[in-house]
Amino acid sequence: MVRHFDNEDSANANWGSGPTFPNVNVLGRNWVMNFCAFTANSGSLQMTGFANYGFSYGVFAPSNMPGPISLGGGALYKDDQGGLNINFWVGGSDNTMNGGGNTWMGLARVK
Question: Which domain of life is it from (predicted)?
């Protein structure tokens, strides 16, 4: 899914470090970001596990993603532009990420 984040227009301190492709900073204020999200919808491809990298990590997923894959859930809330907000989704939103003027992203710890 793709999300256009309409960030604050004034006092904005957005920046990126290193390659950000396929994510794009627009005019130094807004971001268009691509996400791979793990859903818990019936009929979707089911993961049986995640790679072991030797450290704990999480993925974007419904905060109530069922075990044994999820070791705990949470959420990230992003406060976006307050007035004249033009956030939008392509291929979303769902129970993993949603929001209009602000953005909610579900998280699941998988390792």
Answer: Bacteria
